[in-house]
Amino acid sequence: MIVIQADLHPEELHLMPILASTPMTGLTAHTLAAFASNYLWLLQAGDSAIAVDPGDADVIDRALQELGLTLVAILLTHHHADHIGGAAALASRARCPVFGPVDARIPMVTHACAEGDIVSVSGFPPIAVWHVPGHTRTHLAFLVADAIFVGDTLFGAGCGRVFEGEYSDLHGSLQRIAALPAHTRVFCAHEYTRANLAFAAAVEPQNPAILARLNDLSDGRPSVPFVLADEFASNMFLRCDEDSVRAAASRESGHDLHDAMDVFAALRQWKNVYV
Ligand SMILES: [Zn+2]
Fold this sequence. Notes:
The chain is of the alpha+beta class. Helix content is about 30%, strand content about 25%. The longest helix has 14 residues, at about 260-275.
């Protein structure tokens, strides 16, 4: 069950940082809005909180105050400023550990994490660390309870840009995430679902799941988290094996594409210039 607060206009988002609260096994995830399109997350267990990708310290502080929680740890997925901007200030005030990748661009990390690590925070379920390169070279995802915090790797009906590394890196990371149980809740860091569905409709105009998902979106309400099952029908980047998607990517790229990875790269390049 996802508890969603009343419909909000964008200008009200900054007055009310907690947009939604999602109860899960052993914790509750609170959805916070920041900047133009970001989501930051507070995970609550008892009166303790873990912040995930706290790009804006003020947003986190106001939510902690509103919920009466103490910050006990910070998780960082990757080095981009909208994900780490508030981490140093929050960590120094709370004197709490910062878990994140080994990356010189994230100097505030106190506990470096790598693929296969388990982050233990008192009172919380164990948090598994995955290395999911593609958007950035050192990007991590965090798995806890029946959820995954993917940063800018997978988005609602879309995926992140490939800023570092190869298209095959991001393709591999998405394939790995997609192999999780279908009921897995996906927490991504941006509200891009509507724009991504518009692109999906350009790729697969005959796909009824795209229009159905667009109709389910409600202005001012987060479309995140979503469950992985929602993605299989309407996320083109997870449908690279479909004939219709392959045909559209071949048409757009001007090459006859066969391999799913080549389809993925063509789709990602198409999306980069899609208006
Ligand atoms: Zn990013």
